[in-house]
Each structure stands twice: as C-alpha cells, then as structure tokens.
Amino acid sequence: MATDPSEITPRDQHNTITSAIWQGLWVFSVIGIETLFDFRPELVPAGVLQWLVAALPLLIGAGALWFWLRYLREADELQRRIQLNAVALGFGVTFIWITSYSALAGAGAPTLRHNLHMMPGLGAYILARLYGRWQYR
After folding, report:
1. 8 A C-beta contact, residue 130 and residue 110
2. Which residues, 6+ apart, have CB-to-CB distance to 127 below 8 Å?
3. Contact call for residues 118 and 67 (beta carbons, < 8 A)
4. Please, how many CA atoms are within 13 Å of residue 38, restricted to the half-sphere of its CB?
5. The model's pTM
6. Using CA atoms, how far apart are residues 36 and 41, in angstroms rounded to an integer?
7. What is the pLDDT of residue 4?
8. For residues 83 and 19, is the Cβ–Cβ distance under 8 A?
C-alpha cells in the first residue's frame, strides 16, 4: 500500500488503465455500431453476420465489466470505498432519471434514445469519483 492514502498503488494504476482501455473500447464500439446501423446499414449483410456485428459492443462491454470488477477486487479499501460511493450515486441518479423522465416527456420533453438516459448517472459517477479522490487527498 502506498504511504499517502490518496496515492494509487502500481497494481491499482495498472488495473485502472486496463479497465479504462476496455471501457473506452466499449464506448467507441457502441457509438461505431450505432452509427453504422443508422447511416450505412447496407455495409453489414443481413443474417448471422448482422447479429454478430450488433453483439460486438455486448462482448466488449462484458470484457470491460470483467476488468472493472478485477480492479475492484484488487483495489485497497479506500479505492473500493470511493468506487462504491460513486457507483451508488450513479445508480441512484440513473434510476431516478429513468423512472421520472416519462413525466417530463408527458410535459413536452423530447424523446431520448435509450442510451442517452444513462448520461446523468454517468456524469454523477464521474463527479463522485473526482470528489472522492479530492476528499481523501
């Protein structure tokens, strides 16, 4: 463990980078596949290949989840606490946003694509992680 409680150990740093790479790959695969199917669907032949291409973000996302869980299992107690607080806030914001947005839509808010409903929770998760790092500096 590092001497400074806010300092990340080399193992945590490696796991953070690996997890971030997989999460980045997942984000780009979701954006890329959605863009492909929205603007150039003729590039992917119908049938099994189309389903395999559509499943690509799911497979990459499973890898991202696997590496993030490895990070959590191997992280020290402080890093786990920061992550738990961030995940709890992100989940709570996402749950409240998704369940409440139908009322906003009834009042005239625009219809959002399904993945855009995750943005407030993702933003809350990122801010909570930054706050946790700042809090325990």
Report:
1. no
2. none
3. no
4. 7
5. 0.76
6. 6
7. 58
8. no
Higher pLDDT, 63 or 117: 63
Instruction: Give the residue ranges of DSSP H helices in the chain.
Output: 10-39, 48-74, 77-106, 119-135
Q: Cβ–Cβ contacts within 10 Å for residue 41, how many? A: 11
pLDDT over 70 at 2, yes or no: no
61: its two tokens: 């996302």
The predicted pLDDT at position 69 comes to 94
Between the alpha carbon of residue 119 and those of residues 63, 113, 125, 128, the distances in Å are: 21, 11, 10, 14
Cβ–Cβ under 8 Å, residues 86 and 125: yes
The pLDDT tens digits of the residues spanning 84-103 come to 999 999 999 999 998 898 88
Per-residue DSSP letter, 112: -
Tokens of 58: 């799911």
User: Which residue is associated with the tokens 């020290």?
Assistant: 76
